[in-house]
Amino acid sequence: MNFWLFKSEVSTWSWDQQVARGDAGEEWDGVRNYQARNHMRSMKLGDLGFFYHSQKEKEIVGIVEVIAESHPDSTTDDDRWDCVDIKAVRSLPKPVTLAMCKENPRLADMVLVNNTRLSVQPVTEDEWQIVLELAGDTD
Q1: What pTM value is reported for the model?
Q2: Percentage of the chain lying above the pLDDT 70 cut
Q3: Please, which residues have CB within 8 angstroms of residue 131's CB and are 6 or more apart in sequence?
Q4: Alpha helix locations (H) across 1-124?
Q5: For a tag site, which of 11, 71, 104, 122 has the least CB within 10 Å?
């Protein structure tokens, strides 16, 4: 299993909206960055990801699961763009802010800390565990 981070502006698609989709999940569409698209192309069913509110909030708020592997993005006719489908798994007990990640020396190499603009990014297993620890998530 691999781990990821999905970024979204609250005004575009929020954690509450993701949760409301239930097991049906939602297409992670509209990504127009080749590196982010390539990350989605490498995702497998069951991979987990953090759901990150960008812009003002700048915090990891929940965990999602990949429920459909890479397929054409339905929001465009341009066949260069793919997406995956994700569903909410659970909210984190407490959000983990970007500031918390930047302050933690164990997360110094995390993509989120070093490339805050990339909308879909990998997370290592160690980083995953550290973020869960910061969130007070023991599941």
Answers
A1: 0.96
A2: 99
A3: 50, 60, 96, 101, 107, 123
A4: 15-20, 34-41, 98-103, 111-114
A5: 11
**Structural domains in the chain (count):** 1
The 10 Å CB-count burial string (b at 16+, else e) for 35-68 is ebbebbeebeeebbbbbbbbeebbbbbbbbbbbe
Residue 138's pLDDT band (boundaries 50, 70, 90)?
confident
Q: At 130, which CATH number? A: 3.10.590.10
Bridging pattern class, strands 82-97 and 59-72: antiparallel
- Is-contact 68 24, C-beta < 8 A? no
Which strand ranges, in their side-by-side order, compose the sheet holding 26-27?
A: 26-27, 82-97, 59-72, 48-54, 3-9, 120-123
Structural domain range at position 18: 3-135
As a residue count, the chain comes to: 139
Q: Please give the span between the terminal C-alpha atoms of the chain, in angstroms, as a whole number.
A: 17
**What are the pLDDT digits (tens) for 105-118?**
999 999 999 987 89
